[in-house]
UniProtKB/TrEMBL annotation:
It comes from Polaromonas vacuolata. It comes from the Bacteria. GO terms for molecular function: peroxiredoxin activity. This is Carboxymuconolactone decarboxylase-like domain-containing protein. It holds the Pfam family CMD. Residues 36-118 form the Carboxymuconolactone decarboxylase-like domain. SUPFAM superfamilies: AhpD-like (SSF69118).
Length: 125
């Protein structure tokens, strides 16, 4: 693991997902899953999220569509929160999920709408 890449990724991860969530994930990691935390933080959150080609809002939009396509409700909820933190509006999230319904399937999009509503309720928006 490259410590500098990890630290940069950790900052981005905290900025997008919130420090409380990220710190809890790292605190609960053990010898079994810490290597995955390190991998995700260094490569996903630094090497990809910090590339100059796309801004964070655009990356969040892409993630919401992909997570809907993959039907990953836990990750979708996490990234709805990140999308809000990155400037994606509730209305834009609705449009992303509607578009995803057509290209990814209505059942996957319905689950994503359900998850997004839970996050909006938690965030009082």
């Amino acid at each position: 693991m490259n410590q500098e890449s990890f630290e940069k990724g950790l900052q981005t991860r905290r900025d997008v997902l919130g420090a409380d969530y990220v710190d809890a994930s790292l605190k609960s990691a053990d010898a079994f899953n810490m290597p995955m935390q390190e991998l995700v933080t260094e490569y996903c959150w630094n090497e990809i999220w910090n590339r100059p080609g796309l801004d964070r809002k655009t990356r969040s939009i892409i993630n919401l569509a992909m997570l809907t396509a993959l039907n990953r409700p836990h990750e979708l909820k996490l990234h709805v929160r990140g999308a809000i933190n990155n400037g994606v509006s509730k209305e834009e999230i609705s449009e992303i999920l509607l578009q995803s319904a057509i290209y990814c399937g209505v059942p996957a999009a319905i689950d994503s709408f359900r998850g997004a509503k839970e996050v909006f309720k938690e965030m009082n928006i």
